[in-house]
Amino acid sequence: MKKLLQISLALATALTAFAAQAQDVKAGERKAAMCIGCHGIPGYQASFPEIHKVPMIAGQNAKYIVAALQAYAKGDRKHPTMRGIAASMTEQDMADMAAFYEQQAKLPAVADSVAAPSANVAELLNKGACISCHGANFSKAIDPSYPKLAGQHADYLTVALKAYKVERNANVGRNNAIMVGQVKQFSNAELKAMAKYISSLPTELATVPQPKLR
């Protein structure tokens, strides 16, 4: 009984700590100052590894944002700028910023049904089993550690998908066993076609412009 009580107390402490991290939105807003130069400017384009719009992260799942930052910090996602930023952050920083961005966009939830893709794109999406993780409308993933994709910039999605095909490059590439296996089935043109469809769907994501004076 004593051992069980100790385990219960330890679990309660851990859950309390996690809840405190995930709910510190105001702290996340302050810490997001390092992000707004790219993610707070609608239409802002990055030039590495090729020109593309930076992803919309307002309204994104907080657990996914944390997972992405951790991947950049560990080098599982290779991007010099993002790795430098993520490596400078503590777990608390990541949790705070993720909580802030998750609630920053106040868009209506995407409906359960969305416009169907063309037959060709539908075949590609079925081949990749995309909905098994990202949901039928690409906005309600089966786990919040997976990203909402619907409405995300097509050029960003294309660049991100192609990154899973890159090998032995110190500055470009993504390492995720599931995604690597899925993406390597497709040509870059097929990835672009899937990204274009997904980007056309109703979205819960946004880029929220930041005030010039904070």
Can you walk me through this structure?
The protein has 214 residues and is mostly helical. The chain has a single domain, classed as Cytochrome Bc1 Complex, Chain D, domain 2, CATH 1.10.760.10. The chain has 11 helices and 4 strands. The protein has helices at residues 2-23, 25-31, 36-39, 62-74, 80-87, 91-104, 119-128, 131-134, 154-163, 177-183, 188-199; strands at residues 45-46, 52-53, 77-78, 173-174. The longest helix is centred in the first third of the chain and has 22 residues, at 2-23. The protein starts with a helix and ends in a 15-residue tail after the last helix. The model is unreliable at 1-22 (pLDDT under 50).
Give a brief outline of the structure.
The chain has helices spanning 2-23, 25-31, 36-39, 62-74, 80-87, 91-104, 119-128, 131-134, 154-163, 177-183, 188-199; strands at 45-46, 52-53, 77-78, 173-174. It is mostly helical and 214 residues long.
Number of strands: 4
* β-strand amount: under 5%
How many domain units? 1
CATH architecture: Orthogonal Bundle
Kindly report the average pLDDT value: 89
What is the terminal separation in angstroms? 53 Å
Provide the succession of SSEs: HHHEEHEHHHHHEHH
> If helices are DSSP runs of H or I spanning 4 or more residues, what is the number of helices?
11
CATH superfamily: Cytochrome c-like domain
Top CATH class: Mainly Alpha
Oligomeric state as shown: single chain
Largest sheet: 2 strands, antiparallel
- Global structural class: mainly alpha
- Briefly note the CATH topology name: Cytochrome Bc1 Complex, Chain D, domain 2
Radius of gyration: 18 Å
Could you say which overall geometry the principal axes of the C-alpha atoms support? Answer: globular
Low-confidence stretches: 1-22
Question: Helix fraction?
Answer: 40-55%
Strand order of the largest sheet: 1-2
